[in-house]
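Please decode residue identities from the backbone states below.
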């Protein structure tokens, strides 16, 4: 009887030790995967901060050089504001002048390429693709300088 109960106790301990080691292994794996994810996130954060700092540095350099260029061109006094307006703003008169210029371009009847108007539409883009496929001339000499 005693020997039989010893076998039962041994079987009970061996089954529980298997479960015990299984639980230890599961806990270790969960901790390992959590540490691995934390390392990956930390590395990604470092990479993003380096990339962001690099972009910010480039923007600061570009902005500083643009300011130096503007300083060289701007004269002292009230002409500063006028110069900046002319430099950065497109006026309605400029748009009308461009439209007048475009309307005065004569395209001969012998030209068989696509006839485009800007801004381009999907139809114009299809015409350009077809003309390219058929190796037609693009007619860039009929396009204003601002369009090329």
């Amino acid at each position: 009887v005693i020997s039989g109960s010893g076998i039962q106790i041994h079987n009970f301990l061996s089954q529980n030790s298997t479960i015990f080691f299984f639980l230890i292994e599961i806990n270790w794996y969960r901790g390992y995967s959590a540490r691995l994810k934390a390392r990956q996130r930390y590395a990604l954060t470092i990479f993003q901060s380096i990339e962001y700092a690099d972009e910010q540095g480039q923007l600061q350099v570009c902005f500083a050089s643009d300011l130096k260029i503007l300083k060289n061109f701007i004269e002292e006094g009230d002409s500063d504001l006028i110069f900046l307006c002319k430099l950065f703003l497109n006026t309605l008169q400029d748009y009308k002048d461009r439209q007048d210029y475009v309307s005065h371009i004569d395209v001969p009847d012998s030209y068989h390429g696509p006839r485009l108007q800007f801004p381009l539409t999907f139809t114009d883009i299809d015409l350009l693709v077809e003309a390219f496929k058929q190796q037609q001339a693009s007619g860039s000499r009929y396009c204003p300088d601002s369009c090329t």
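Observation: Residues 1-78 form one domain.
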